[in-house]
Amino acid sequence: MKRQSIGILAILLFGFFNLAAQDSLLVVQNSFKEEQKILVGALSGATKIDADHQLKGRWTAEERALTRTYLSKWIDQIGLKAEEQPYNMPNLNPLLDILIDPYEGTNLYTIVPATVSSDEYIILGAHYDTDRDCPGANDNASAVALIASVAKRINTLKIRTKNLLIVFFDQEEEELVGSKAFVRFLKSKPFNINTVLTVDQMGWDMDGDRNVELELPTPQLEALFKKMAIPLGINVYSTKVDATDHYSFREAGYVAAGLTEEFVHQDTSPYKDTPKDTYDTLNFEYLASSTYLVYTVMEALVTK
Ligand SMILES: [Zn+2]
User: Fold this and answer.
1) What is the rounded distance in angstroms from the CA atom of residue 104 to the CA atom of residue 199?
2) Could you give the number of structural domains in the chain?
3) I need a labelling partner for 261 at 20 to 30 A (CA). Which of 8, 16, 174, 234 fits?
4) How many angstroms separate the alpha carbon of residue 172 from the centre of ligand 1?
5) pTM for the predicted model, two decimal places
6) What is the 224 CA–ligand 1 centroid distance (Å)?
7) What residues does the ion ligand 1 have nearby, CB within 5 Å?
8) pLDDT digits (tens, 9 = 90+) for 32-56
9) Cα 90 to the chain's mean position, in Å?
10) How far is the CA of 135 from the centre of ligand 1 (A)?
């Protein structure tokens, strides 16, 4: 074969494999999108969550219990075991405990176990509660769906050298009570926690650039996210926002960061904590794209 023909063949082959790679990326993202539409639909009350209930929000004890039952079933279906962590937490001012009952809630978690013996854990979390009568499609059914999809796909990996703990926090909207209770629970376990990432609001992308914000990452986590984001054409901006669950972990001395839509860069849902935070305002393309990014980061972390 002439050198020129080899060159052309190489270009054709490269083009073919590149197309094939993009194709499979599209297939994976579409599968995320399909399952996430179902999850967000049920959690935000666009569809029924079981035969008898359609949620108005995830605020009351009953609404939160229905949410957990639904998510537990989903966890069972992907071949993992759902565990509940019920808790009581005192009010911020202990004197209030005399007047108001302490907080009562339940975190839900599951472990995608390492395939080799390991006490090391990566934690990926998202809160499932909302304010009263808020459907909370973006805040925070979006991130609940994101971590659910990541758990499912990480569970299909042949080799994992670390455990991945997926946690759905209760009562983030109440002074981060759920994640604080989960930190207290972790301290009582022999878990060696490598990294914590919590995700909050991941379904708004009006300008269509698919960019995300990483909140208070370590230099290592920031570098990993950026490395994985480049081939996907996503910009990862680091910010110093700490107003959500990752704060509870950092306060307790863990390595923790947050991930969200462009909150500081002002491409974020205007419907947060309102009855307008509905299913039909959610950008499922963006959610699937961000899910894929988090998946690649988690894959790197649990196989390293
Ligand atoms: Zn939130």
Assistant:
1) 23
2) 1
3) 174
4) 7
5) 0.92
6) 24
7) 139-140, 200
8) 999 999 999 999 999 999 999 999 9
9) 27
10) 12
